[in-house]
Write a structure and sequence with these properties.
The structure holds five protein chains of five kinds.
Chain A: H1 10-19, E1 29-38, E2 41-51, E3 56-60, H2 67-74, E4 82-87, E5 90-91, H3 97-103, E6 105-107, H4 120-127, H5 136-141, H6 144-163, H7 179-192, E7 197-201, H8 209-226, E8 230-233, H9 237-243, E9 246-251, E10 254-259, H10 261-265, H11 268-275
Chain C: H1 2-32, H2 39-57, H3 59-82, H4 90-112, E1 127-130, E2 133-136, H5 137-159, H6 162-171, H7 173-178, H8 183-206, H9 222-229, H10 234-258, H11 266-281
Antiparallel strand pairs in C: 1-2
Helix pairs in contact in C: 1-5, 1-6, 1-8, 1-9, 1-10, 2-3, 2-4, 2-8, 3-8, 6-8, 9-10, 9-11, 10-11
Chain D: H1 40-43, H2 50-65, H3 71-96, H4 104-119, H5 134-158, H6 161-181, H7 183-186, E1 193-194, E2 199-200, E3 203-204, H8 214-238, H9 240-250, H10 252-257, H11 262-288, E4 290-291, H12 298-311, H13 316-335, H14 353-371, H15 375-389
Antiparallel strand pairs in D: 1-4, 2-3
Classes of the chains: A alpha/beta, B alpha/beta, C mainly alpha, D mainly alpha, E alpha/beta.
The complex binds adenosine-5'-triphosphate (ATP) (2 copies), leucine (LEU) and magnesium ion (2 copies).
One adenosine-5'-triphosphate sits between chains B (11-12, 15, 17, 35, 37-43, 55, 89) and A (176-180).
Amino acid sequence: MTGGEEGPGAAGVETAAGHATPGTVPPVLTFEDVGLSFAGVTAIDGVSFEVAPAELFAVIGPNGAGKTSVFNVLSGVYRPQRGRVTFLGEDILGLPPHRIAEMGLARTFQNVELFHNLTVLDNLMLGRHHHFGYGPLSALLWLGRARRQELAARARVEDIIDFLDLAAWRRHPVRLLPYGVQKRVELGRALAMEPRLLLLDEPVAGMNLEETEDMARFVLDARDELGVPIVLVDHDMGLVMDLADRVLVLDFGRPVALGTPAEVQSDPKVIEAYLGGAP
Amino acid sequence: MLEVRNLEAVYDDVMLVLRGVSLRVPAGSVVALLGANGAGKTTLLRALSGLLDVHDGEITKGSVLLDGEPVHGLLPAQLVRRGISQVMEGRRIFAELTVEENLKVGAHTAPRQAAANLERVYGLFPLLKERRKGVSGYLSGGEQQMLAVGRALMSGPRYLLLDEPSLGLAPTLVGQIRDLVVEINKQGTTILLVEQNAAMALSIATHGYVMETGKIVMDRPAAELLADEDIKEFYLGLGAEGAVKSFREVKHYRRRKRWLS
Amino acid sequence: MKGVLESLIRGLGTGSVYALLALGFVIIYKATRVISFAQPALMIAGAVAVSYLVQVTGFYLAVLLSTLLIAGVALAVERVAIRPMVGRPVFVVAIITLGVDVVIRVVVNGFIGLDVRQVGDPWGLRLADIGGLVVQQRWIAMFLTTAVLVGLLFAFFRYTRYGLAMRAAAFDQETALAQGVSVGMVFALSWGLAGGLAAVAGTFVGTGQGVDQLTWIIALKALPAIIVGGLDSLGGAVIGGLVIGVVESLVQSYQGDLAPWLGQNFAVVTPYVVMLLVLLVRPYGLFGTPEVERV
Amino acid sequence: MTRMTGRTGDLEAVAEPPRAGPAAPRARRPRGRPLLYTSYSQDMALLDTRAKKVWLALLLGVAILFSGLPDDLLILLAGGYVAAIGAIGLNIVTGYAGQVSLGHAFFIAVGAYTSAALSGDPEGRVVGFGITNMIVWLPAAGLVAALAGVLVAPLAARLRGLYLAIVTLGLVFLGEHIFKEWDHLTGGPGVGRPAAVPELFGFRFDVDSALGTRAQSLYMLMLVLLVLFAVTARNLARSRIGRAFSAIRDRDIAAEVIGVPLTRYKTLAFAISSFYAGCAGALMYTITGFFDPGSFNLLMSVQFIAMILIGGVATVSGAVAGALFITLLPRLTQELPALLPFVSADTTQTPNVFQVQVALYGLLIVLFLVFEPRGLFGLWIRVRAYWKSWPFSY
Amino acid sequence: GVIRGDDEDQKAAVTTGVTNEPCPLAVDRNKGCVYLGTISDLTSGPFAALAVPITQAQKAFWNRVNKAGGIGGKYEVDVQAYVRDNKYNPETHNQVYQEIKNNVLGLAQTLGSPTTAAILADLKANNVVSAPASWTSAWEFEDVIVESGSNYCVESMNAVDYAMETYEPKTVMAVHYAGDYGADAAAGAKIAAERNSLEFTAVETPAGATEQGRAITEITKNKPDLVILTTGPADAAAIIGQSAAAGFKGRFIGTGPTWNPALLQSPAAPAILALYEQSSPGRPWGADTPGHRAMREALGNVTPNDGYTSGWAWSYPLKAALDKMVAGGDISRKGLLAAVKSLSTVDYEGMLPPEAGNYAGDPGTATFRQTLISKPDRAAPTGVTIVKDFYTGPTAQSYTMDGPCFEKL
Ligand SMILES: Nc1ncnc2c1ncn2[C@@H]1O[C@H](COP(=O)(O)OP(=O)(O)OP(=O)(O)O)[C@@H](O)[C@H]1O
Ligand SMILES: Nc1ncnc2c1ncn2[C@@H]1O[C@H](COP(=O)(O)OP(=O)(O)OP(=O)(O)O)[C@@H](O)[C@H]1O
Ligand SMILES: CC(C)C[C@H](N)C(=O)O
Ligand SMILES: [Mg+2]
Ligand SMILES: [Mg+2]
């Protein structure tokens, strides 16, 4: 990993670099020369990158650059026409989304995709879905197994509720929550999955500064305390440049630059395509 | 002028969300409305555009005046015809319609200007023109946001209520939206801008309001707000010395906001 | 061969009725995403109205008046029972239409009484000979009427802004409201049109055989037709109706010889079998708009 | 709205949110019932509040007391309880999992015929195996119906919304055709066949006995079974499976991305729902003792949909309430016309009592849904909200 | 602790469904009251159009009985207090039956076969004598059911025999609904065809005028000389009209319920007048018998319909049995059933021959086997006039009733 020696993110990068260094430890995720297009629209065109353990990797780019599509490929929603994607050493292309989720890939969505009639609690409990090991019969009769597992899951979910400061909304159907809180619930649901890789698609969109700060904290804590590698997409450059260890810049589905925030920020191509004006 | 007087709004007959909000949007101005998640900004806009009903919400007190005339009993369609148009939170495009069809629905109340407005919107967002035959639901998030803004312009509104127009837009586009707002304001459209990007909003607004838990807690000219210590700290992210803080340094501790005491 | 052709033509004839019926369902669906189970009642009400009016005004005027009358009834229903439901789950609305159907049908049955009522159409069971093919005149009339009405509807949806407004309202009522679309107006329009279409369809159902208290059941044939065509497609409704009519007619004629093991009245369920087969290949029917889903 | 945070130092300064976080355990409660849990298991219990326990006990008590009602009402209620089992089943696939099924009548039929065939007279005109013990034919009816559910699920899983609704409706029509043709099993239309014999280890519920009249026995049987089926359904709803169903209903793509296999769970929903339907079908006709293949029609499916909509979607108690409402409604509307002076009792007059009854049935459904679209459950919520906030209106 | 059935201890009650109090609408308030229930298809079921006049006629019938002094001078009969709608659904039928069963002595009407089958066990268990509104051959085997007029099975046998002597057909096709009505008749046609060595085919057809395509194709393709129709009126019109339009020249004979006078206004009228005849278990509305005259007078100004005629005729055996019960002194359900079992003739006031009311013998001998043939006639009140009065064809004559016919198709 190209540990950032300068810039505001230096301290964090060192923490991350402490966890792993490319070359010595195999990457959690490799994305190799992936190409994806829809009738007439090329969404991803020859993108490659790797994510190291405990790395905070950011993907940025103009609207329509293909960032969300990258996430959709990773989580199995889109099937690319070419390329290879390995997660924890296993080829995941072609696997159904739920299989990939079971392997430990969790994500949040750009347009909040919560289960809007369910409470915050149930949404988070759903994050733990594949950690349960009991079947329909046990569920119908609420036998010991189901009961025990549900209780254990509840305890973990409560930890996350505490962590994300959601206690006040616990029993609210999420559809009634303000947008910003919904985004936090989504993060909570992803964390409840105990992910081995976390994808965050614009986690601070629609948040004011204060809330962005909170979210930044949560993201960093998740990475530092749980050691989960994270791929982050956002248009809030302040956040991305502060948090990310490395940044990949896409434009029209093609990679434009890949490097530390500092490197990327000063790349004229990036400035022209995305940042606009001075960095 | 669009004016809100002492407005109270309730959801589901029990949840009081707006508690006596008063606010004025003078014709020709750009007014910014800031506030944390859940403060009630969206609810206020719903009250202005007549959409509370759909959410089981209700105005229980106060009034909304358009050029001195009460309009809070009117249906959304009537309000649109009177020149109030809204960009709804969360884009809300008609995902099954094409880009162009979405825009045409926006022009429902102004069929005569449809063609001209369409050209104008395409001028603002060339990308939309490129994809005009495409099914809008497949657009990327940011593209959809452009469409939502463009659609609101199609009725040629006198008052434009923008609920977080820059949400999910790339920095370059945020700049463009900012310019766009300035531009359409110059062309005579009055704007009420709800934004989380306070720096952007206050840089173009003439006046600003800050809302917390259903109340207006600050009501000042934009320039004054920009200079306010709390606004600087809580909305602009400037430290005491005016330097930009790093997100890495944020602690889980917040100073008590002055306006709450 | 001639048998096949005649069976085909008979299929097109009954298929035209299904198509007319289907159009009413589709129009309401397009604007509200609701399948109106009140259509059967409106259809039969239309036919019964004609059967009374025809004695005074003659057939064509009776059809016109009945169309207006039933459109009016549909508008009233919409205003009283459907409009308050703007923004509510569509299935609740669908069940409401079912309640409406029950109420209207009881009233209409009162007017049907014990009889089989005749609509007094000019075609009766008379035949026409087209190049050696013997065809019932009423089938030709149905076919032409359907064609004309579909043409008019297409023009309406193509050249007025209401077609688009309907689709927008169907997709998201709140957002449509925010664009200044009067969703109530859209509802009323769709119900009015569907009511009028139901009356015309009902009249044709009654040609040649009359209507009695059980005739409403035929309106259910429109359901597989609209699924085959795609729930929100006018053209699909017509094609779906015709396909179902033709297949059913062919099955009626030949299944007994070719596949007797399917049971004696397999034709009755062929619409549903056709529907299932189409859906296996195309989950949104032949011309339905696929639901857009992306995350 | 400012958050109530557990960590910031200025908790006291936070304005009390209007009814925010009402049931937040371990948090300070702004207003309402004192509701303090000391463990998650208390919080997650089936009856998590005192009020619920009291209500349930009260309801059960009343239901048991009802067994002293006249026989015809008992029969009616017993029918209502069986319908409730069916409605709970439909609620699983439609209310919880969001797969609108108009095919419920078909699964009911499968259950009814399975049980009737198993317990039927081997010497009779129609198929029968003479196994009258309920312990055999009831689960069998459920399982065969569940199997039917599993068979249709793959197609159903591909379809959405009303497409699914109408396809399942097609199932009803196909089923009607099959049942009418297969008269060796069904007796044929207009003829029918005897239903399953409700016998449990030698005790017949469908004849008068020392323990009570036939109506009383049937009533108690159905009551006990309903409680059983309701409790298991509640368990299911609060388990991972019930949650996964709701997730699929609310947002299927997101559900899949967090690890819920869609097809498997849709299939499971159909299977469980059909199991309930099958059992309901088996029980339903033990009351009349006889049934006709024409009964399993669109109307029946629609009535079940109406039950869950009127009761309140995705709640077990709603399904029960809705089922009772729909089964009792005709009886209710029978009494009403007597109060209206203009309706004639003469069947040839219009309007006559019988027409008014049917029209009222339709009308009441319309009125009810227009004024309380959330159903009986919504009504209950409203009443409760009213009392909770009383005497403060907001 | 529930009061049930016959043990009911009401002050004025003589027995279940009989009171010493006068009927609510009593003619003579000094008489007691016998309550009879009616369960019919009154609103939304498939037979509503027939059921309504049946019910209406029975009301008039019993009213006339009451005016004429009631039963044995002691009781009047009420058929209006307990009328219920079954919507032709067995479950509903059973439900409403449960509702009224403890208030009535017997049933003045229980309409439909599957519906009645759903309460049959209870009727038998509690000795509830009932007049059916259906003509299925299954009732020949039930003591509690007092049927009137020949069943569909016999009616079709006679129809085929009639055609044998009139048209000498070589081939017969039965076009029929499924079940007790259609299949019962088709079975009769089949038995008669076999006996007359005719070629026989049966075509089952669903209800719905637009669903008759297959039946029409079968008819026009196979060109049978005789078609025995057991459908509803609208369907019959569709079949006859369109077959004729396609050039079919054979004969049609329909059973009773296929007819509706309004068919003569339909476009199929010419075909009907040319090709159709009707068999029926009794004489039509306009017939000149004391019973018919009384019925017309009692009903007054109604649109003629043979639903009335059947409803009226179905009531005679019950009246006879009630008379006999009161005369015998055992006023109870058991008494009524005993009275029924001892009836070997019933005075139908000429509407049916007295032997039609034989409930004493075993089915083999007691089954009534006479029917009539009528032809369409615009001048007649219900559109038909008799061409062949009550007769028994050779097939019906020699046939042994050993089970419901519909099982034999
Ligand atoms: N399912 C699809 N069908 C058609 N086009 C699609 C589909 N998904 C994505 N696209 C197109 O692919 C391109 C990339 O979309 P994507 O959502 O990945 O962009 P993004 O980088 O996330 O943009 P934003 O920042 O605006 O969210 C866009 O032009 C979009 O319209
Ligand atoms: N339909 C509704 N029913 C009940 N409560 C609602 C409803 N919509 C919003 N609320 C509540 O009203 C309050 C204000 O919400 P609103 O959406 O107006 O906030 P906002 O200021 O727009 O927040 P954000 O910046 O996150 O969009 C919140 O507490 C929310 O939970
Ligand atoms: C007279 C008719 C209503 C009888 C009917 N065909 C039945 O047997 O059910
Ligand atoms: Mg994106
Ligand atoms: Mg908002």
